[in-house]
Amino acid sequence: MFLNMKKIVAVEVFLISTILLFSSCSKSKDIKSFEAMNTFMTLQSYGSKSKKANLAVENRIRELEDSISTTKEHSYIYDLNNSSNKEIELPQDIYDLLSFSLNISKESNGALNIALYPITSAWGFTTGNYRVPAKEELEDLLKFTDFSKIQLLDNRKVKLADGMKIDFGAIGKGFAGDEAIQILREQGVKSAILDLGGNVQVLGAKTDGSDWTIGIKNPWGGPVVAGVRIKNQAVITSGGYERYFTGDDGKNYIHIFDGKTGRPVENEIASVSIITESGLYGDALSTTMFVLGLENACKYWKLHQDFEMLIITNDKNLYYTSGLKDKLSLRYDFNNVFIVQ
Ligand code: AMP
Ligand code: MG
User: Fold this and answer.
1) Whose CA is nearest to atom 5 of ligand 1?
2) Tens-of-pLDDT digits for all 341 residues of the chain?
3) Hey, which of 15, 262, 296, 339 would disulfide with 292, CB 3.0 to 4.6 Å?
4) Distance, CA 27 to ligand 1 centroid (Å)?
């Protein structure tokens, strides 16, 4: 399945020190930074419409956060999570988001499971009060994480079984990226790059017509390890290094969970980056592939082939899908480089 390209030498030299690698010759641009969805976001849009468009994007992202937050009282998801078995009516976009994620959950045999909130909160990832729950506690909580018990009813109504709680942490920022790109387009912006807490999504090309180059972070810190050239696409990464805590036992516990065990995923993947047109699809897949692990992620790609993927393993190997062949420039001395095809 893999083509070994041992120690490919980077042929291109970048100017690299940050995650976003780009330049532009445009005179008119607007940069807007703000905090939303528990992260820091930066919108960089070009052209005379950019300021108004960026403001509209910020407003939409805040509105979205107010709809899907698990902690803001009376967000739709807050109400759903506290509905004690009652039907809750959702707006069309949030209903569609739920339905989309349930499809990927089914498709990935539960690797993506937006009903894991009882588990992620038991470990303290929702509050910052980190702890390692006992095996029995996890076994009890796992009973409330069966996503097949989420009932999508007519007229945009949803019903959760008692004790179930959902969380769009794995896909919310990706969805926000798609919404942002659509608003920018509608407002007449033709070129933009968005950093939504590490999710990078671009509209069009740079103003000189060339591709954007997006840096792939080194999971162990330091300069970026690769650059991916994209247009009208998103590069979305999931990695254990993004959020974790160190237990009393000295072990690191990461924020991405295996829904079968209720424990943080432990496999060979250090980070997985997905390259897609849709930020939502990319975000859903980044988490899904991380949970699936290297072998099953490659099988999933072979079956679907409607996205590109780059996986960095703990033993410092790089695996990337064949569609990235001409899009990738390496900046790191990986032990081995494999092309998935
Ligand atoms: P991401 O950084 O996109 O991979 O999303 C990680 C976030 O998704 C975590 O912080 C949790 O809120 C949530 N999460 C963790 N594990 C899963 C899982 N297996 N399925 C769905 N959501 C998850
Ligand atoms: Mg994700």
Assistant:
1) 170
2) 455 544 433 333 333 333 444 444 446 999 999 999 999 999 999 999 999 999 999 999 999 999 999 999 999 999 999 998 899 999 999 999 999 999 999 999 999 999 999 999 999 999 999 999 999 999 999 999 999 999 999 999 999 999 999 999 999 999 999 999 999 999 999 999 999 998 999 999 999 999 999 999 999 999 999 999 999 999 999 999 999 999 999 999 999 999 999 999 999 999 999 999 999 999 999 999 999 999 999 999 999 999 999 999 999 999 999 999 999 999 999 999 999 99
3) 296
4) 39
- Alpha carbons 191 and 26: distance in angstroms, whole number: 10
Q: What angle do CA 180, 283, 186 make, to 5 degrees?
A: 15
- pTM of the predicted protein model: 0.92
Give the integer Cα–Cα distance in Å for 3 and 64: 42
Nearest CA to ligand 1 atom 10: 255
Tell me the C-alpha distance between 71 and 55, whole Å.
Answer: 25
Pocket flag, ligand 1, residue 58 (CB < 6 Å) = no
Rg (the chain; Cα; Å): 20
